[in-house]
Amino acid sequence: MSLPCGIRNYTYARDMTILRTRTHWALFTGLLALLLTAPLYLGNYWLGVGNLIGITLIAALGLNILVGYCGQLSIGHAGFIAVGAYTSAILTNRFELPFLIGLISAGITAGIIGIIFGLPSVRVKGFYLAITTIAAQFIIIWVINHWGLTGGFEGINVPYASIGGLVFDNDAKQFYLIMVIAALGVFFAKNLARTKIGRAFIAIRDNDLAAEVMGVNLLYYKLLAFFIGCFFAGIAGALLAHWTGTLSAEQFSFTESILYVGMIIIGGLGTTLGPILGVVFIRILQQLLTVEVVPWLEGTFTMFPAGFASGVAPMFFGLVIVLFLILEPRGLAHRWALLKAAYRLWPFSY
Amino acid sequence: MAEFLQFFITGIAVGMVYALIALAFVLIWKSSSVANLALGQIVLLSSWFTYSMLVQANLPVWLALPLVIIFALFLGWVIERFTLRPLIAQPILSLIAVTLGIGYFIEGIITFIWPWSVDALPRLFPRDVIHIGPAVISQEYAWVVGICLFVFVLLTLFFRYHKMGIAMRATADDQMAVQACGIPVTRVFSRSWMFACVVAAIGGVLISSIGGITHGLIETGLKSFSVVILGGLDSFGGAIIAGPIIGLCESLGGGYLTPYTWAGVKDIIPFVIIIIVMTIKPYGLFGETRIERI
Q1: Hey, what domains does chain B have and what are their CATH numbers?
Q2: Which residues contact residue A9 at a Cβ distance below 8 angstroms, ignoring those fewer than 6 apart?
Q3: pTM of the model
Q4: Cβ contacts of residue A46 below 8 Å, gap of 6+?
Q5: Which of A23, A33, A131, A329 is 20 to 30 A from B210, comparing alpha carbons?
Q6: Contact yes or no for A135 and B226 at CB 8 A
Q7: In which residue ranges of chain A is pLDDT below 50?
Q8: Which of residues 147-206 of A touch B (CB under 8 A)?
Q9: ipTM, interface predicted TM-score of the complex
Q10: Architecture of A42-345 per CATH?
């Protein structure tokens, strides 16, 4: 472990803690203060971006637990997010149930669907499992498009979230809701890695036959990984539904799934900081591209056929994913760890 | 009866094209154990390039189609050389993710160069109808089946008799032994990617000459994964046999189930078949069962 000089752990609790030094606590309270007062200094637009980042972060944390900690390839995450979103939408819209019940049932339903489509993971791994999750994504989207309960192709309207009498009807209030749930999600994911379940996941990722020999119940832990990963996705989907107001199946395309896998790979698999960095990186780039670059391109190069600049975002993100995989496969979290180590060891950082 | 024959022949033709695209996948998987998830986008890109050659540049057919093949060779070479060569022997998640990234990139290029989302290719095959029993089918389907069979025979002969074909089979079998014999494995990977892209391009041209170029070609590429799974991931014969099977299931299922269930059942049948095959026989009809040891 790379501890700063002079810091020693005298108890087990101190050894396992997340925030160890006084600097850690100071920075952490600073971050909390920054986040909690964000609606005061961020405009409505950036609050919206922050909400999107929070929602994506919850889903990406789930995918990271599934792929990064447990090693089960899943390229159908957008489908599970869609399950959560539509469950919450149907429960609050058609059946008029309160938001919190919709939220929890969205998570549980997505988790159960994740378990159903994750059953092949006990028999196959690698590419076979990836194909199964791709098929799962397409089946889920098809069912959403063709089932009357989910509104078919027209989509479904979702009322604002409300807890007790408090209605979350503007970006600032939803920012608090989403940030609280995202913070809980990060805390849960970070702690998961330190518990017996997390260690079982990592054992399965590294060599599942050896893990089975050691006594790790593969069926239980693989399905649990799918449940937890898709539970996170369901919660994210429910929050997404109540944030955007209307749902349609185009928001949950295969391209979104590719983007999620890209986010956790760019951020760094198997760490908790990874999804945060990856999500922030990709979402802010997306905002910059769609709001700044694309209209500028459309305006300057008018000799090209109309709509050509909407291809710039996929080109850019595809290139970014490929470059990260070739040049830095361990992601931004690894770069950050190297930076911290270099800072700590300066001037001997070579 | 006429309806049944209609569905049957359409299903066989479409299934043959699925088999072609599946062959492209199996080719890359067998030689380098890389799962190429960008096939749908490669098919779409080749179809748009054909459109570019035939319609935008107005070249004659005998010049445009060889140019498409050269383009596909070049595309395969570029993809292998610059994105997969640096990732040799990386874990499979990296390889799958890099092909996903390449597919996403190609999708962006397609929207960049041809932003209108649908178009039609000029008639490549004669459209006159032929009568088989009570069914009336257009000649295009017969041409498609014929060309697919021709490509299968060509590939089989190549793998059996040509030096590079034998080298590819040997690399698929035991890479280290091949390196010990002095065969440049990177060149084998490169050639296999180039041929796979050519086969996918031919499949794309065939299917877009019937149905036009749409964004749904990417889904066609994904449906051909069901052919790969059903036939077995590392079996050429499996892909050739499973292709018409999936095409028939899709066509007959779509034709007979649509009045009773939802419209669009046709699209979901290949994916449901994937799930069924995964639960019953994950390695497909002719695939090799993976036995893993610690």
Answers
A1: 2-280 (1.10.3470)
A2: A3, A15, A20
A3: 0.92
A4: none
A5: A131
A6: yes
A7: 1
A8: none
A9: 0.90
A10: Orthogonal Bundle (1.10)
